[in-house]
Design brief:
Length: about 270
């Protein structure tokens, strides 16, 4: 099964990248912490860095989504040609084993399984009294789903010819709900996993993020393979999901860090 092998290769490659990047990232953070000690409000430098990186990533992804949206809105022949080539490639690449794999992935990416997953994780977080994590998760995923409906209604793009599709599908096509939903859901779960495994070795946190990204790619790809979405729908869904999960996570992380710093400063001020 070629696509199963590709999924495993993608997971291990991403995991290796994260493992290699961790020492470099840790070294950079230590150097910055040392360099900023001379600033009066040096404690807030990490907060500013999180905000700047989040804004930069959101702007870059937003620009990419805007470009795709303009091409869709103008009914670009160039974009249609790219969509058609991927659509035809997927149709002629189908095998029984690959179809089983992608049907499984697309089922995982439907609202009910994702909702059950989020409900289960949220219940676990509440049981552990992690109220803020639970609120962040429900808000991010729930609002992301509503945002996808708004975007679909606005663009009202038709799906490919469903007579050739391997799955039934309804509604508009742009952006892909599976791609956007999986990006938001597993992106938010990745953040929670990294926070929850903070005291574990980095390789386990890296594995969690690598697995989440691999699942996102597999779910998104399944929609093209099964013939229910154009490749541009999938790309736009991933980008839109990335924009929202980044904005939500940066906002939460900024709030968390400022709240923690204020508590630390208040405690220092109370010490005689």
């Amino acid at each position: 099964m070629l696509f199963v092998l590709a999924f495993l290769i993608l997971f291990f490659v991403l995991w290796l990248i994260f493992l290699v990047a961790e020492p470099l990232l840790e070294s950079g953070i230590k150097r910055m912490a040392h360099w900023t000690t001379k600033f009066r409000y040096h404690d807030y430098v990490p907060v500013a860095l999180v905000v700047l990186l989040g804004i930069g990533a959101t702007i870059a992804a937003g620009d990419l989504f805007e470009d795709l949206a303009e091409l869709v809105h103008s009914n670009s022949t160039h974009l249609h040609g790219i969509d058609a080539r991927f659509h035809d490639w997927a149709r002629y690449s189908r095998t029984p084993g690959s179809t089983r794999f992608f049907v499984t992935m697309t089922i995982i990416g439907t609202p009910l399984p994702l909702g059950i997953l989020i409900a289960g994780v949220t219940a676990l977080l509440i049981a552990k009294k992690r109220w803020r994590w639970a609120t962040y998760l429900v808000f991010t995923v729930g609002t992301g789903a509503l945002l996808n409906l708004v975007l679909k209604t606005y663009f009202q793009r038709a799906r490919p010819d469903l007579a050739e599709a391997l799955r039934h599908a309804t509604g508009f096509s742009f952006p892909s709900g599976h791609a956007m939903g999986s990006m938001v859901t597993f992106g938010a779960l990745s953040y929670v996993a990294v926070r929850a495994l903070a005291h574990w070795q980095w390789r386990w946190r890296a594995a969690a993020v690598a697995l989440a990204l691999s699942i996102i790619v597999a779910i998104a790809s399944s929609r093209v393979y099964l013939g229910v979405h154009w490749i541009s729908d999938v790309g736009a869904g991933i980008v839109a999901g990335f924009i929202w999960v980044t904005a939500s996570t940066v906002a939460y992380e900024t709030f968390r860090r400022i709240r923690l710093l204020r508590a630390i400063r208040a405690k220092r001020g109370a010490v005689p």
